[in-house]
Amino acid sequence: MAKIDDLRRKMQDMWDSNGFTNRRKRMEEDYDLYTLKPFDAGDGYQSYTSNQPKVVADKIISWMNDSRMIVSAPLSQRTTEKDAGDSKEKYIVGAMNMADDRLVARGMLTVKSQMAAHIVLRGWFAGRAVLNKRKEKTYVDITPFDPLRVVYEQDEDGIVWLAYRTLRSSQSIKQLYKIDIEAPTNSEYDDEFGIPVWDYYDREQHAILIDGQDPKWGKKPLPHGVEDSEGEGVAPVFIGPVGIVPWMQGVNGDLGQSNDYGESIFSSNRNLFEEFNFVMSSTKTLVRRGVRQPYIVESPDGTQTLDTDPWQDGTEVPLPQGTTIKPMPEMKMPADTGTFNSLVSGELQRGGLSNVHMGELPFAISGYAANVVREGSAHTLEPRLKSLSSAFTQIGELLALQYVSNKFGKLTLTGRLNDLTDQFDEEINPEQVEEGGRVRVQFKPNQGLEDPQKIATAQMLREGENPLAPDDWIWENILEVSDTEQFRTAIDAQKANLGDPKVQLMNMITALMKTGDDNKAMIYIDLLMKTVEQEAMTQQMQQAQFAAASTQAAMPPGQQGAPGGGQQPSPDSLGVPGGGGINAQLGPEGAPVQAAPGEAGGPSIEAVLSAIGLSEGPQ
């Protein structure tokens, strides 16, 4: 067991290091931009604060929350059953749904929503993903950490240890950990703001340390039991940066470089916001001075002032003899102000989102031009979706490693793999998860099918005797279909529903029965029964003709064509007494002898539906 003072010193030293200090400073400044910290233009000047940082960040977060999650687990070499991959995918989706339900019940946002906000505003993601037991009941705990409050150490194999530092009141600590503790006298924090609480994870143990005046264990170091397939310990936490640029070390070391690795959405415009606010504040100041124009009071001794505001409606200003009021010359904005403002605004759009993304079109543009402008947002959205994918992939692997250890029993999970599959609610065995392949989670922007060029391109690639590309490639790369196998199955099912008239009748009957239109459904049931009987009679006639032809062909040549040799079978010879088939129900003139289904003397609706496979029939 690690000594409490040694563990505290290790975490505190990492917290105080230059790299993490610089990163936290940058994150706090970015959050000030998001919360629209008021811009100060100075005493005597009007101040203007643009809402652009918050609007852009909220737009990107909204896109990320609306993105489609695609979970895949390619099969390992030990199995050829697709069910194993499906079971692992269902486990990952169901486990994440269980974790979301737990967070929502606690009044918190879902994992995806929290991670999207951290990725956009902090430029990093972090958290824990563990299976826990409470009263012999297993639950999934996925808790995102605020990256500003995380310190960690890594090696070539990944995370060596990670600690999450939060501030809690002494009352909260007593309630959670049953510990009475005093705030440290040498700390910058007191009980009004909170006492530091370290949530520590390494490859073997988990511990909670209360960093008060006398440090105590909130939870003593205990083995967490998470291991990889080789039996090596794994810290049940995840972390990662945002961006397309790797870690780069300067000539003089890492000093000042840490805050550039893993950037927020404001990285390109961080300095431009202040320039834009300054220009808008100057404009606001001149507008205000146009409404309350400065004036000069001239008096004999130069000491006269006004006791009232001369610019208010109906104001009377008494003036001593020899005193006059003169407005100062009107001040105007420099001629190049508009040009400078346009340049700053243009750079803000290039570094963030264009006005087209906000629904502002200064003039009519073609669909192609709008798409070109829309694609300009790729540099802001795609790196963040990749980071979200990386986070959920790490979460999926951690949850799978713990489940296959057989320490948590069997879970019954619910969810939906994609838009083409039904909701599942089933028990998933650890053995099924173990047989699946490595987890891969992807998030794709949910742009829908508003772009007709994609559809036209897909059709051109597929049409003709020699298609230019296979269907799977077209669906995945042009139409961005998440699960091409499910997509193909849905298309084949759609073709099957339209292929045979009987299937179409059954679909119409099912739809009418679901809507409660039983009378209309009976019309189609009667038509379906007649169609089935007609086909059965036709098939019987064809079989009888074939049997007769075969019999005649087998006779000696002298007997072929003899009286009675090749006569057609009578209706009674079709294998059904009285003629069989539909003739059994027809009178002399073809009128039905038996009443229609659902009517008096006729078969019941349940019996008819059971006969054609639409219900279980009468009990």
Termini, distance in Å?
67 Å
Strand order of the largest sheet: 4-5-6-7-8
Main sheet overview: 5 strands, antiparallel
Number of helical elements = 17
Report the principal-axis shape.
Answer: extended
- In round numbers, the mean pLDDT is 81
Indicate the proportion of strand residues.
Answer: 5-15%
Radius of gyration: 38 Å
Structural class: alpha+beta
Helix percent band = 40-55%
Task: Give the tally of β-strands.
Answer: 14
Low-confidence stretches: 76-80, 565-591
Describe this structure in words.
The structure is a single chain. This protein is α+β, with helices and mostly antiparallel strands and 619 residues long. Helix content is 41%, strand content 15%. The protein contains 17 helices and 14 strands. It has helices at 4-16, 18-34, 52-65, 82-105, 111-121, 170-177, 272-291, 337-351, 367-375, 378-403, 430-435, 452-462, 471-477, 484-499, 501-514, 518-554, 605-611; strands at 68-72, 124-134, 137-144, 150-155, 158-168, 195-202, 205-210, 216-223, 237-241, 295-298, 324-327, 411-415, 424-428, 440-444. The protein has a five-stranded antiparallel beta sheet with strand order 4-5-6-7-8. A hairpin with a 2-residue loop joins strand 4 (150-155) and strand 5. Helix 5 (111-121) packs across helix 10. The longest helix is centred in the C-terminal third of the chain and has 37 residues, at 518-554.
Provide a quick synopsis of the model.
The chain is α+β, with helices and mostly antiparallel strands. It is built from 17 helices and 14 strands. Strand 2 and strand 3 form a beta hairpin.
